[in-house]
Specification:
The complex is a heterotrimer of chains A (359), B (264) and C (188). Chain B has 264 residues and is an alpha/beta fold. Chain B has helices at residues 3-6, 32-47, 65-68, 81-91, 103-109, 111-119, 160-163, 169-174, 190-207, 224-227, 231-245, and strands spanning 53-58, 72-76, 96-102, 125-130, 133-134, 140-141, 179-186, 214-220, 249-253, 256-257. Chain C has a single domain, classed as Pyruvate-ferredoxin Oxidoreductase, domain 3, CATH 3.40.920.10. In chain C, 37% of the residues lie in helices and 24% in strands. The chains are: A alpha/beta (359), B alpha/beta (264), C alpha/beta (188). Strand 8 of chain A pairs antiparallel with strand 2 of chain C.
Chain lengths: 359, 264, 188
C-alpha cells in the first residue's frame, strides 16, 4: 500500500530501495548522505525482504562489491558523496565496460578536494562527461524533491536493467538533508533466482553443464574487438538519448527567457520564476530530470517557440551551461548564474541575475 | 597392436579436467599458474560443484583465467577481487566463490580489500599466487620480493631501508579471527602438487559448511622469465631462498593458529 | 490561503530541528504541503542550528529562503542573523532568556515567550521547544492541537508515545505564556 510520510531525501531514497526490491546495498559513510546506510541498517531489510546491507571498508570496495553482485544479476547499489564518488570512478568505468546494471547515488557536496559538506552541483561534469576512463555514459537522474528521491530509485534500476548500464542518481546535500512529504510506492518483491536467470542470462550464477560459461569482463585486448564493443556501446547510448529524456517545464508557454536548472537549484529557481512573473517578466523553467540523456530537443523546441535566452542556474562555476549552449547551438543567448563551494543562491539572487540577463 | 587398441577407456591413466579448455595457456612454461589452474579446476570437478562456482580473476598474469577455466567468471580491477567476491557471496550465500590473485594484487594494491574481506570472514576461498615479482608488466618489484632481489624497479637489489620489507601477508591474514584456514603451498614437485590439491579440496569443503570463515591458500611459484632463470633453476632458487622466508606449510586450521606466525 | 514560511533558530541542543519537524509533521496531518530544510554540518555541534519550515496549500517551490513570514528565535546570535530577514508585517517570536539586545524593528509583530524560565521552574527542560511552539501556535494557529498530536504520534517512535501528554502540556503552557512586546510604542 502506498504510504504518506515526512522524510529526509536520503531516508526516502533508502526506503525506496527496500521497496523497489533491491538485493544489496554496499556503502561507506560520508556526509551529507550517511543517513542512507543508517536508515537501511536500522530498517534491517535482511529480515524482511532479504536485502543485504553491508558497510564496506571504503568506497573503492563498495563499488566493487556492487560490480560483483551486479555481475551475478542482482539489483545492487551504493551511495556516497563527492569525494567518495571520486574514489569509485575506477569501479564505475569497469562496470560501464562490463555493461552491468547498477545504481550509484551521489549526494553532492562542494569541492574540489575534501571541500565542504554543504550542497553543491559541481560533480555534473564528472557524472555526465565521464569521471572514469574510457568512452562511457551514465544514465543520470537528478531528483529535485524528496518525492523524486524515492521515485527515481526505482526508475534508475528500471533503466539500468533495461539497458544493462550503470545509472547515477545525482542529488545534492540540500535534497538529501531536507524533509518533505513523500508518497511511498507499494513494495515490489525481490526477484527470485529463477527470475534473475530469466532476466539476466549473462549473469554469472554458476555455469550449468552443457551451456556456455558466462564471463563478466571489461578486458578486450584486441583493438578491433574493443572498437567493436565501443560502437555497440555508442549505439546503446544513442537509443537511450532518443528514448529516455525526461524533463519538466514550468510556465514556458509564453516565456521569453527560460531558466535551466536541476536538483535544488531548480527549486530555488522555481521561486525566482514566481518573483519574476510577479514583476511582469515572461520567464519559465526547464528542469532536466535526466542530465544524461540531456533534454536538448526541449531546448530546440523552446527556441522555435520564441525563447530568446536560457540562464543555466547551477551550484557550480557553470558546467551544465555547456550542454545548454550545445543544445541552443547559437539559436539563443545562453549564460550561467550560480554560487559555488556549498553556497546556495537564494531565489532573490537568481531573480536579480535573471533581471540582468533579460535586459 | 594398433593405436585404436590402446586408446580405450580402461587404459586411461590421466585425463584433463573438463573444466579447463584446450586453449594454450598464456603462462610461461614452468610457471606455477598452469598447475594451480589445473588442480583448482580438477578439485571443482571432483567435488561436483562446477555449476555452483563463480571465480574471480583480477589484473595480473591470471587476468585471462576466464579464457581457460570453463566456469562462470568475473574479471576484476587490480586488487578488487575480494570486494567482488564479497558482493557475489552476500547475494548468493550458497554458491562457491573463489578469487585468484597475484602478490601485487593481493599484498599491495588490494591489501585493504583482502584484509577486510578476511576480517569479515567472507565464506570464500582466496587463492594467492606469490612469485615475488610483477610478472605481467615485465618483472617489477612486488611487495613480496625478497631482500636484495634484483628486479626492473629494484635494479640494485631490494633495499629494505627505502623499499620496505618483503611482506608476509599470509601470516598477517592468519591473525584475523574470522579466518578459518590458512596454508602456504607450492606446486614445484609432484609431491607438492598433491599436497596443494588436498588443501584446495579442504578449503572448498569448509566453504560448503556455510558461513564460517575465510579460507586462504598461498601458492609459492617461480617466475622463471621474471627471475631470468630456466624453470629448473628457478624452482631450485625458490627452494633455497623463498622457502626460507616464506615457510611452506599450514599456518592456521579451523581457526587455530598452528605455528608462530610471523617469525620462524 | 495558507503559505507560511518559518525560520526557527537557536543553539544546537535546544530542540530547534525537532520543533520544526513536529510542525512539519502536523502540517502534513493537516493535508498541507510541507518542507523542512535544516542547516546541517559542523555548525550544529555546539553552535547555532536553524531550520526553515514551509507549510503551504500549494506545491512548494524553494525550500531555501532568505526572507520569512515568521522567525522563532532562541538565542542572540540567531536574532542578530534573522531579525532583518522577517518580511514587513511578519511575526518575530523570541525567548528573552539570554537575549541582551532585544529586537528593534518596528514593522513586525514581536512576541516573547519565557520558555527557558518556565521549563526550568517546572523541571521540563526536555519539552522546552514545545513551550515555544505552543506560543507560536497561539499567535498563528496554522495547525491545530489535534494535528500536532497526530504529528507527534507519527514522528515519535512508539516507545516515546508516553511522552505525548507532557508535550501537549508544554504547548498549552507556551500558549499561556506568550506576550506581545510593545516595542513600537516604547520607541515613540
Amino acid at each position: 500500500m502506498s504510504e504518506l510520510r515526512l522524510m529526509k531525501g536520503n531516508e526516502a531514497l533508502a526506503e525506496a530501495a527496500i521497496r523497489a526490491g533491491v538485493d544489496a546495498y554496499y556503502g561507506y559513510p560520508i556526509t551529507p548522505q550517511s543517513e542512507v546506510m543508517e536508515y537501511l541498517m536500522k530498517a534491517n531489510p535482511e529480515k524482511t525482504t532479504g536485502m543485504v546491507v553491508l558497510q564496506a571498508e571504503s568506497e573503492v570496495a563498495s563499488i566493487n562489491m556492487v560490480y560483483g553482485a551486479a555481475g551475478a544479476g542482482k539489483m545492487a547499489m551504493t551511495s556516497s558523496s563527492s569525494p567518495g564518488v571520486s574514489l569509485m570512478q575506477e569501479g564505475i568505468s569497469y562496470i560501464a565496460g562490463a555493461e552491468l546494471p547498477c545504481v550509484v547515488v551521489n549526494v553532492v557536496r562542494g569541492g574540489p578536494g575534501l571541500g565542504t559538506i554543504q550542497p553543491s552541483q559541481a560533480d555534473y561534469f564528472q557524472t555526465v562527461k565521464g569521471g572514469g576512463h574510457g568512452d562511457y555514459k551514465l544514465i543520470t537522474l537528478a531528483p529535485a524533491s524528496v518525492q523524486e528521491m524515492a521515485d527515481f530509485m526505482k526508475l534508475a534500476f528500471d533503466l539500468a536493467f533495461k539497458y544493462r548500464n550503470p545509472a547515477m542518481i545525482l542529488s545534492d546535500g540540500a535534497i538529501g538533508q531536507m524533509m518533505e512529504k513523500v508518497e511511498l510506492f507499494d513494495p515490489v518483491p525481490r526477484r527470485t533466482d529463477e527470475k534473475v536467470a530469466e532476466q539476466c542470462p549473462w549473469a554469472t550464477t554458476g555455469r550449468k553443464r552443457g551451456t556456455q560459461k558466462r564471463v563478466i569482463t571489461s578486458l578486450r585486448l584486441v583493438a578491433s574487438v574493443q572498437e567493436e564493443f565501443n560502437i555497440k556501446l555508442q549505439n546503446k547510448y544513442k537509443e537511450i538519448q532518443e528514448k529516455e529524456v525526461r524533463s519538466e517545464m514550468l510556465q514556458c508557454d509564453d516565456a521569453e527567457f527560460v531558466i535551466v536548472a536541476y536538483g535544488s537549484s531548480a527549486r530555488t529557481s522555481m521561486k525566482a520564476v514566481q518573483i519574476a512573473r510577479e514583476h511582469g517578466l515572461k520567464v519559465g523553467l526547464l528542469r532536466p530530470q535526466t542530465l544524461w540523456p540531456f533534454p536538448s530537443k526541449q531546448i530546440e523546441t523552446l527556441i522555435n517557440n520564441g525563447v530568446k535566452g536560457f540562464l543555466s542556474v547551477e551550484m557550480s562555476a557553470g558546467q551544465m551551461v555547456e550542454d545548454v549552449k550545445l543544445a541552443a547551438n547559437g539559436g539563443a543567448k545562453v549564460e550561467h548564474y550560480g554560487r559555488m563551494g556549498g553556497v546556495i543562491a537564494s531565489p532573490s539572487d537568481i531573480y536579480e541575475a535573471l533581471k540582468k540577463f533579460a535586459k | 597392436m594398433e593405436l585404436e587398441d590402446i586408446i580405450k577407456d580402461e587404459n586411461i591413466v590421466f585425463k584433463k579436467t573438463k573444466l579447463l579448455n584446450d586453449k594454450p595457456l598464456s603462462y610461461c612454461p614452468g610457471c606455477g599458474h598452469g598447475t594451480v589452474h589445473r588442480i583448482l579446476m580438477e578439485t571443482i570437478e571432483e567435488l561436483g560443484i562446477d555449476e555452483e562456482t563463480i571465480g574471480i580473476a583480477p589484473v595480473g598474469c591470471a587476468v585471462m583465467a576466464y579464457e581457460f577455466m570453463e566456469i562462470d567468471m568475473q574479471e576484476a580491477a587490480h586488487g578488487r577481487a575480494p570486494a567482488l567476491a564479497t558482493g557475489i557471496k552476500r547475494v548468493y550465500p550458497n554458491k562457491y566463490v573463489f578469487t585468484y590473485q597475484g602478490d601485487g594484487d593481493l599484498a599491495a594494491i588490494g591489501t585493504a580489500e583482502t584484509m577486510h574481506c578476511c576480517n569479515r570472514g567472507e565464506n570464500i576461498l582466496i587463492i594467492f599466487i606469490n612469485n615475488g615479482i610483477y610478472g605481467m608488466t615485465g618483472g617489477q618489484m612486488a611487495p613480496t620480493t625478497l631482500e636484495g632481489a634484483k628486479t626492473s624497479t629494484s635494479p640494485y637489489g631490494r633495499d629494505v631501508s627505502t623499499m620496505g620489507y618483503p611482506i608476509r601477508i599470509t601470516e598477517l591474514i592468519a591473525q584475523l579471527p574470522a579466518v578459518r584456514y590458512v596454508t602456504r603451498q607450492s606446486v614445484h614437485t609432484p609431491a607438492a602438487v598433491r599436497k596443494a590439491k588436498a588443501a584446495i579440496r579442504k578449503a572448498f569443503e569448509y566453504q560448503s559448511e556455510g558461513k564460517q570463515g575465510t579460507c586462504f591458500i598461498e601458492f609459492l611459484s617461480n617466475c622463471n622469465s621474471g627471475w631470468k632463470m630456466t624453470p629448473a633453476q628457478a624452482n631450485k632458487w625458490m627452494e633455497e631462498n623463498t622457502f626460507k622466508y616464506y615457510v611452506p606449510g599450514d599456518i592456521k586450521d579451523n581457526f587455530k593458529l598452528l605455528k608462530n606466525p610471523i617469525i620462524e | 490561503m495558507i503559505n507560511e514560511e518559518i525560520i526557527i533558530a537557536g543553539f544546537g541542543g535546544q530542540g530547534v530541528l525537532s520543533m520544526g519537524k513536529i510542525l512539519a509533521y502536523s502540517g502534513l496531518m493537516n493535508g498541507l504541503e510541507v518542507s523542512w530544510m535544516p542547516s546541517y554540518g559542523p555548525e550544529m555541534r555546539g553552535g547555532t542550528a536553524n531550520v526553515t519550515v514551509i507549510l503551504s496549500e500549494e506545491r512548494i517551490s524553494s525550500p531555501i529562503l532568505t526572507s520569512y513570514d515568521t522567525a522563532i528565535i532562541l538565542n542572540q546570535q540567531s536574532l542578530d542573523k534573522f531579525e532583518n530577514a522577517v518580511k514587513p508585517g511578519g511575526i518575530l517570536i523570541y525567548d528573552p532568556s539570554g537575549i541582551s539586545n532585544p529586537p528593534t524593528r518596528h514593522d513586525l509583530n514581536v512576541f516573547s515567550v519565557e520558555a527557558t524560565k518556565a521549563a526550568n521552574e517546572r523541571n521540563m527542560s526536555k519539552i522546552f521547544n514545545m513551550i515555544v511552539l505552543g506560543g507560536y501556535l497561539k499567535v498563528n494557529p496554522v495547525v491545530s492541537l489535534e494535528h500536532i498530536e497526530a504529528g507527534l504520534k507519527k514522528s515519535l517512535p512508539e516507545r516515546h508515545h508516553n511522552l505525548i501528554p507532557a508535550n501537549i502540556e508544554g504547548l498549552k503552557l507556551g500558549a499561556s505564556l506568550i506576550q506581545r512586546e510593545n516595542f513600537y510604542k516604547a520607541a515613540c
